[in-house]
């Protein structure tokens, strides 16, 4: 009688074990862990007994991973953040899909022999970015919570909506002319109504019902039940969206996250979902490697290479050009373009639907899979290159703008919409940290100017009578509008270290005597800012929490407030000790 683990159990264990081993190896090589996960999947496929038979189970787990990842992302976003980027994301994503679809169709016709009509189904599979890869890559570089993350997520949501309509369109195309324009329009109209009904249900019912239900569970005091309730909310809404409204499984989970994120249980929901999200999202990347059939790629190497190149150039290039055309800052445009320059889960879905409908032959699987894997592996490298190229592109665009003829106008800067301000504070960043600083300064009626990339936040501050400048503070033209030469102190509440360094450099050029307070995220960055940049005060979240707790404890144990403060000042100049 044969002994050994069940094939399904062996597949799950192999996915998790090899993901850990290869992910650790990738990190040791200073590569993103997701590259190691994909390599683990490529190893599992041909060598693990039963792995091929259990690919459907791995794919299902991967789909859950994508849904939980988007649910977690939704918990940290607000509907206002997404609405603020719709003016760019909606037309931009539609134009980008058309451009990338055209490039992909040309590849299909030239190298795969596809007919002109059906080649657009192949092109569409090469035009939809992977939400899981883009968000994970931006998160690893600390960009997901900023302007780049908001813009990229709005773009991705628009792409997902296009997929909803594409899944209606593909069967109609497979039916040929017999289907008729009326049937096609009817199908698209049904899809639009279903989507609108789902959004309306979420806004009118879900916004109240989901937080209410989780609050009741939280009052019971059981962490296990609360965790189950969070997963039930995420996956339940995802199934509802997919089965009843035709919305993608992942997009449904994202909407659930956005609605829960606006409630007071959102933070705890995120904490409960995070461990499972990390595990299942790792399995998603393993499944990408698992799907690769090297024999299919070997039979069409030129088509696979051309498809990969088409994805990176057509998606990344068109996103970059469109964002610059919409007036987005070069650094931000480069980051978003690099983050979106790949395909993934929705491309696999569109490919399989097209094959089942008889639109595309089986031979397209190899090029699509190779394009996905190649572009996913390249994404972290493209993001790194984007950060390196950003200053050069900014200088180039500034040079071109300077050479462009301008209409005659009176000399001198344009008048600001507020009275002349001197000896003021410049607050860069109006997020949670910046908003707290702004509130403190306003409480004492101190002069300040706020700089923020979120247009909606700037309009809100302006309506409250706070001088606010919209734009990228790392751009000299934008930063100069805050009059740093007359400012007394610069408060950098930016989440990114590179951006903070650039703003600090501009401030020192304009006003060497300006005082500075900088937000930091690591001891290494803190040490550099204090030693090399000579920043007046560097605030690191974990350190300040520890010092605040120590100050409170010392005073409650009888230490005089002045003595406790002196101890805190000494400790602030030291690095946090690491235990374990």
Written account of the structure:
With 580 residues, this protein is mostly helical. The protein folds into two domains: 385 residues, Na+/H+ antiporter like fold (Up-down Bundle), CATH 1.20.1530; 111 residues, NAD(P)-binding Rossmann-like Domain (Rossmann fold, 3-Layer(aba) Sandwich), CATH 3.40.50.720. Helices cover 70% and strands 4% of the residues. Strands 3-2-1-4-5-6 form a six-stranded parallel β-sheet, sandwiched between helices. The C terminus is likely disordered.
Descriptive labels:
Na+/H+ antiporter like fold; disordered C terminus; 6-stranded parallel sheet; mainly alpha; 70% helix; 2 domains; 24 helices; Rossmann fold; 580 residues; globular
Helix/strand layout:
Layout: H1 7-28, H2 33-47, H3 55-75, H4 79-83, H5 86-112, H6 119-125, H7 131-140, H8 147-174, H9 180-219, H10 223-245, H11 249-261, H12 266-291, H13 294-299, H14 301-325, H15 330-339, H16 345-356, H17 365-403, E1 425-428, H18 432-443, E2 448-452, H19 455-463, E3 468-470, H20 476-480, E4 489-492, H21 497-510, E5 515-520, H22 523-531, E6 537-540, H23 541-556, H24 561-572
